[in-house]
Amino acid sequence: xxxxxxxxxxxxxxxxxxxxxxxxxxxxxxxxxxxxxxxxxxxxxxxxxxxxxxxxxxxxxxxxxxxxxxxxxxxxxxxxxxxxxxxxxxxxxxxxxxxxxxxxxxxxxxxxxxxxxxxxxxxxxxxxxxxxxxxxxxxxxxxxxxxxxxxxxxxxxxxxxxxxxxxxxxxxxxxxxxxx
Length: 180
Description:
Layout: H1 6-14, H2 18-40, H3 43-59, H4 70-126, H5 131-142, H6 147-154, H7 158-179
Helix pairs in contact: 2-3, 2-4, 4-7, 5-7, 6-7
């Protein structure tokens, strides 16, 4: 079947002759597969590349010029597919590098901001001068205890705990308003 000239083969493929397409596929697929494998050194990727080339050939068959040399066209397609994959992987590599750089930078900035915020909050808590009020606040918000647990720990009424925490919050808010 491949004794026909490229022009005849392309004409038949353009007309939708599946038998001619299958013959072209059978003849050129192993050659293109070797060429693709030589370029990318991965058999599965080479097979995918060649499959994409033949799928594209079939879907674009009506646009094919019958005057092009078929062998040249197919090998050029391997080269172009390889170049496309290289560009695509290079873009992906650059994107990943950029993302890692940005996320590292953002993480570092977030850590620094968190440390600064933590320092300011600690400073505001230390501005609460009454030790019992400061202790009630720390037990509630830092150690995550309930009002009842704090009342038992400090041997005071739960309402007293609420009042002390309320006073501490007023002092801390006013201190943080000055800072922020």
